[in-house]
Automatic annotation (TrEMBL):
GO molecular function: metal ion binding; sulfuric ester hydrolase activity
Pfam families: Sulfatase (PF00884)
Taxonomic lineage of the native organism: Bacteria, Bacillati, Bacillota, Clostridia, Eubacteriales
Protein name per Swiss-Prot or TrEMBL: Sulfatase-like hydrolase/transferase
Any single GO CC term annotated in Swiss-Prot or TrEMBL for this entry: cytoplasm
Species this protein is from: Candidatus Ruthenibacterium merdavium
Length: 257
């Protein structure tokens, strides 16, 4: 096909050495290992900037931070800069984003025609789709508040060391952001149509502060704390375009700070 469908999976602070295929003997990431075995693994790749929002704007715009000027998580990408989602949209792609994008404003138009967002404490919290849905259920993900309050820290606090930035979530599994993001991403992929190329960017939050535990499964999508949103070989989605092993789209796993 001349215009492949594109799926971009990006993670918050997923360390390169917290993956089985990069040599970690303790963390099991079988699905990512399988994907890496049949892919290109860039083992000398560095983020352009070690802060979330600026590095995302650099990824979308292909500019260094000193060029686009968004220096921290309260900054924004000035209008007029081209981004790859805008370029794809202008060339006939259906563009969508699901999960954490960490833009300012929350629903900034950088080229995604459809957005279903799940942000963290700080900019975007309670404005996004996930938290509005969560409030409709009478729930709140209160443990996220422990980790997402400060823009910068001179040094981390003792309790973050003691708990390894992990905690048992107070939400039921079906209300967890990982489950919500996966359900919404799956729905987007099932809407892909022949003759209309699509790009979907999926952003997960929980690598930054691991608030869920154990091995989870959702209708053929399998993941653990470092292994998310990959279709199992045994149980594929009904849409043939959603099977990772089929060469109908490009899969990129990207970790941002």
């Amino acid at each position: 096909m001349s215009q492949p469908n594109i799926l971009i999976i990006h993670c918050d602070q997923l360390r390169f050495d917290c993956l089985g295929f990069n040599g970690n003997p303790d963390i099991q990431t079988p699905h990512l290992d399988c994907l890496a075995k049949n892919s290109v693994n860039y083992n000398n790749h560095y983020t352009v900037y070690p802060i979330c929002t600026p590095s995302r704007y650099s990824f979308w715009s292909s500019l260094y931070v000193h060029q686009h000027g968004a220096w921290d998580n309260h900054a924004t990408l000035p209008g007029g800069y081209p981004t790859f989602p805008k370029v794809l949209r202008e060339n006939g792609y259906r563009t969508a984003a699901v999960g954490k994008m960490h833009m300012n404003p929350v629903y900034q138009d950088i080229g995604f025609s459809h957005m279903e967002l799940a942000e963290q404490n700080g900019t975007g919290r309670f404005q996004d789709d996930y938290h509005r849905w969560l409030m409709e259920q009478g729930k709140i993900d209160r443990f996220d508040l422990h980790h997402q309050s400060d823009l910068f820290r001179e040094e981390t606090t003792d309790h973050l060391y003691d708990m390894c930035q992990c905690a048992q979530s107070d939400l039921a599994l079906e209300n967890d952001s990982t489950e919500w993001i996966t359900r919404r991403a799956k729905e987007q992929i099932e809407c892909w149509e022949d003759g209309t190329p699509s790009v979907l960017m999926v952003g997960y939050r929980k690598q930054k502060t691991a608030l869920s535990g154990g091995f989870l499964r959702y209708e053929g999508w399998s993941w653990n704390s470092g292994d998310r949103l990959l279709c199992t070989k045994e149980k594929r989605l009904k849409s043939t375009r959603a099977a990772v092993c089929l060469p109908c789209y490009v899969v990129a796993l990207i970790s941002f700070s």
